[in-house]
Write a structure and sequence with these properties.
By secondary structure, this protein is mainly beta. It contains 3 helices and 46 strands.
């Protein structure tokens, strides 16, 4: 009688434990990262009433035993994947796949699937209840060292993008192969004719034999030479007619003496031409007028521009940085020379910088349009300048030849266009914003326009997660049965993804829980009936003696 009574009591007690488990599951249906639990029952010890024995007939008789009730064999957690729910909050992290976030309470590492994290007032990455999220901190270049240790993640005032002096500037583009410099030229509007030969005048033609001379010039008559040099300075000179035999060549000699940077000649048609000695824009002008007190009369032609001086140039600029992170605007101007496939370059700054080396040089191109040679003037090899603000002297490699991976300069027929697509310096930058990718890497966007990895969240793979001890607040601790966790990086060392802006929901299945609740309720009722019937048996026994 007592055995059945005790069995019923054990059934009631253990079904109550099952209801406790079910109630806990249902209560945590909305708990972030919660994993449902299930209870497994085991038969209690049995009492042997008769051992197995051999009968008188020689047969073997089984032993006889009766059970003493039920006990809780185990309560296990189901670590199956919960759905990821979008929250829109960057620091909310959901895990897809096996693994746990590693957190620290200041004394030991703990583990959780609940990724409702945030940065606290000191910039530390923490859980909702203030535990420190663990990971690796990258160096100033955005690289996590192989020897880096796991520790607290922090985005505080020390997280900056440091100033880096520019070391390389890349140049790319095209310099027009058809470009050619032009020397400015002014030509007389009328040719001079030598009446003695009835042909175009030559340098040897006498002035008085010209068709322009309508009354013979006398000794002392003059021609006034006036105009401007190529640089805009005024020209004023007087040519004086001498003894008979003064020639056109003598007049041209006087013009050339008066001018600086331009040369007067007589072409084959008898036209006087004055041409700049160098190419490029010019302010050259020329007029030849007879003196007002001349005895003779000569009417020399006026001049018009027949070739406008020009210099094919193309320029580009880029901001570079010194060792203090200060910005300097570097300008490079390319100028076509009168040599085939050759351009010069000139470097300048817009501020108080002083260039000590590499301010100019020459580029030559091969006949297929590719860059052939780069030579700095005075056998120099790079641009060296003093920023003028107390920072270190800067040395910059001007990469004309594509050593940094960008297209090199070319010379093909077509529009000249040069740009500088890359320089490797930067100003100091403050952290402006951040983002977290699927590998748990935290990338910072800085006010200097640079982006780099700041830290990476650590994950742990546990061989036997069912052995973890749940210590509350969605956090687990290790036990003797879990083994040593393997801490690694998502996506590379662990096949797990981290999704920013999401949280893993509870994996509680309400339908399943309600079904188990019904089973527990009926089992509880049945065990209660066992106790009731056993009580009735005992009652009958006590009434045998009246």
């Amino acid at each position: 009688m007592m055995r059945s009574l005790f069995s019923g009591v054990s059934g009631l007690a253990n079904q109550q434990v099952k209801m406790d488990v079910i109630g806990n599951n249902i209560a945590n249906v909305s708990t972030v990262g919660f994993k449902t639990s299930s209870i497994n029952f085991a038969e209690e010890l049995s009492q042997i009433l008769q051992s197995a024995q051999e009968t008188a007939s020689g047969g073997l008789q089984n032993g006889v035993s009766v059970g003493l009730g039920v006990r809780t064999g185990s309560i296990e957690r189901n670590f199956g994947q919960g759905i990821l729910q979008a929250t829109g909050k960057q620091t909310d992290l959901g895990l897809q796949g096996d693994g746990f976030f590693v957190v620290n309470n200041g004394q030991q590492d703990l583990y959780t699937r609940a990724g409702n994290f945030h940065f606290d007032g000191r910039g530390r990455f923490v859980t909702g209840n203030g535990l420190f999220v663990q990971g690796w901190t990258a160096d100033q270049t955005g690289v996590v060292s192989e020897t880096a240790t796991v520790g607290n993640i922090s985005l505080d005032s020390t997280v900056i993008s440091p100033a880096i002096a520019t070391s390389n500037v890349s140049l790319a583009g095209n310099l027009d192969a058809t470009a050619a410099p032009v020397n400015e030229a002014w030509t007389a509007v009328r040719a001079l004719t030598d009446t003695s030969t009835s042909s175009a005048a030559t340098s040897a033609s006498e002035l008085n034999d010209l068709d322009s001379t309508t009354a013979a010039l006398q000794n002392g008559d003059t021609v006034v030479i006036a105009g401007t040099n190529p640089d805009g300075s005024a020209v004023s000179a007087t040519f004086t007619y001498g003894t008979d035999g003064t020639t056109v060549g003598d007049l041209l000699t006087a013009v050339n003496t008066a001018y600086t940077g331009a040369t007067a000649t007589l072409d084959s048609t008898g036209q006087i031409v004055i041409t700049d000695d160098t190419f490029g824009p010019s302010q050259t002008t020329l007029t030849l007028n007879a003196g007002s007190s001349n005895a003779g009369t000569i009417n020399l032609p006026s001049f018009v521009m027949t070739a406008k001086g020009s210099t094919p140039t193309v320029a580009s600029s880029i901001d570079v940085f010194d060792s203090l992170g200060s910005k300097h605007t570097l300008e490079i101007t390319f100028t076509k020379t009168d040599n085939l496939r050759e351009w010069t370059f000139q470097v300048a700054f817009t501020g108080d910088e002083t260039i000590s080396e590499g301010s100019s040089g020459t580029l030559t191109f091969a006949n297929d349009g590719t860059l052939e040679t780069v030579s700095y003037d005075n056998a120099q090899s790079s641009l060296v300048f003093d920023p003028g603000n107390g920072s270190q002297t800067a040395q910059v490699n001007l990469d004309f030849e594509n050593s940094t991976g960008f297209s090199a300069l070319t010379q093909f027929a077509g529009t000249s266009s040069v740009n500088m697509p890359f320089q490797d310096g930067q100003a100091k930058g403050e952290l402006g914003s951040y983002a977290i990718d699927e590998q748990g890497r935290i990338f910072g966007a800085f006010t200097n326009g640079k982006t780099r990895m700041i830290a990476q969240v650590a994950l742990a793979r546990i061989n036997n997660p069912e052995g973890l001890l749940h210590i509350g607040n969605n956090v687990y601790d290790l036990s003797a049965s879990t083994g040593i966790p393997a801490v690694g990086k998502a996506g590379t060392e662990l096949p797990t993804s981290v999704f920013s802006g999401t949280l893993e929901a509870s994996n509680v299945d309400l339908g399943q829980e309600f079904a188990e609740m019904i089973i527990a309720q009926r089992a509880f009722q049945a065990n209660a009936r066992v106790i009731t019937v056993s009580d009735q048996f005992l009652s009958e026994v006590t009434q045998l003696k009246r």
